[in-house]
Design goal:
The structure is a single chain. The chain is an alpha/beta fold. The chain has helices at 34-61, 72-82, 88-100, 112-118, 125-134, 154-162, 176-197, 233-246, and strands at 7-14, 20-27, 144-148, 168-173, 204-209, 223-226, 252-256, 270-280, 283-292. The strands form two sheets. Strands 5-4-3-6-7-9-8 form a seven-stranded mixed β-sheet, with helices on one face. A two-stranded antiparallel ribbon has the order 1-2. A hairpin with a 2-residue loop joins strand 8 (270-280) and strand 9 (283-292). Helix 1 packs parallel to helix 7, helix 5 (125-134) crosses helix 6 (154-162) and helix 6 (154-162) runs parallel beside helix 7 (176-197). The radius of gyration is 21 Å and the shape is globular. The two termini are 40 Å apart.
Length: 304
């Protein structure tokens, strides 16, 4: 359904040369009035807030104890319980709202390139399991894991469960609605899950709203996740340059669909460790794992 209240119907017409054209026809709207939609959303938000408050109160009255053993299945189960009041439908709704509803002074949302950079998708859980297993000896205890474009933080909470010995999980997200949902989940993580990971030193989850190209929140991270599957070329190249500036030697950067350009030459900033097909939330995608070398990057002009 379109935002104007008219619905769109896709039809296909032959061009006569074996190809087809998809056309959009408007029909009478059957969507509820906007005020009804807003009222229903407000009611659902209030119900979710009550459920979150009840869960936090329950955790305070009966604090969970630290688990003696923790494997990938335990981590998956814990993440699913954590997100039980934040289904995928809610996350997609909030993402679509902000992509197509511009703020004053922002891109109007009509540019396909602008929309591409913000389309929502998540690292697959088993993809993260494979990453932390394979590179466990390169990820030190008390490490910092960052997710650029962290959405509702699912990869951050998964990382905390898979490596309870890390110090911080840092997320940077541009969209306000997703950042707010992530903050709700973090409150639940602090109450329900963190005490199960460690009695004293469970990973701290930090959430920042902003542009990761200009922020310094992820400076010095040991592992950086970048869901770059549909990044524009300009954004991907800027991400590579920024990572070379703010990360130290030995840091791992994981990208999807394509790898950094500055690899495989003398003086390169990055060493490509692997390029492997793994399942993500939307399907299969190539995972590129890079390690920062000791070589200095060229100046990019991007400031903190």
């Amino acid at each position: 359904a379109s935002r104007s209240g008219a619905s769109l119907r896709a039809t296909r017409a032959s061009t006569g040369d074996g190809m087809s054209l998809e056309t959009l026809e408007t029909s009478e709207a059957h969507d509820p009035p906007p005020e009804e939609v807003q009222a229903a959303r407000a009611k659902a938000d209030a119900k979710r807030a009550d459920a979150i408050a009840a869960r936090i109160d329950a955790a305070k009255s009966t604090p969970p104890s630290a688990s003696r053993s923790w494997d990938a299945r335990d981590a998956l189960d814990a993440c699913e319980r954590l997100f039980r009041d934040h289904p995928g439908s809610l996350i997609r709704e909030r993402c679509r709202d902000e992509i197509f509803t511009p703020s004053k002074g922002d891109d109007d949302g009509s540019s396909s390139e602008h929309v591409r950079d913000l389309v929502y998708g998540e690292f697959g859980f088993m993809s993260l399991v494979a990453l932390f297993r394979k590179y466990s000896d390169q990820i030190p205890p008390r490490a910092v894991v960052a997710d650029l474009g962290s959405g509702v933080g699912r990869a951050l909470f998964a990382a905390a469960c898979l490596r309870p010995d890390i110090a911080r999980c840092v997320g940077v997200e541009k969209l306000r609605g997703l950042h707010e949902l992530a903050s709700e989940v973090r409150a639940l993580y602090d109450a329900e899950l963190a005490p199960m990971l460690s009695a004293t030193r469970s990973p701290k989850v930090e959430l920042h709203r902003g542009d990761f190209l200009h922020g310094a929140e992820w400076r010095g991270a040991d592992v950086v996740l970048v869901n770059s599957a549909i990044f524009r070329d300009e954004l991907f190249d800027a991400t590579e340059a920024r990572a070379a500036e703010v990360l130290g030697a030995g840091a791992l950067v994981v990208t999807l669909r394509r790898g950094f350009r500055d690899c495989g030459r003398e003086g390169a900033c990055w060493e490509l460790l692997e390029a492997t097909e793994r399942r993500q939330s939307w399907g299969m995608s190539t995972v590129y794992v890079h390690r920062r070398t000791r070589n200095s990057p060229g100046r990019t002009g991007i400031e903190d």
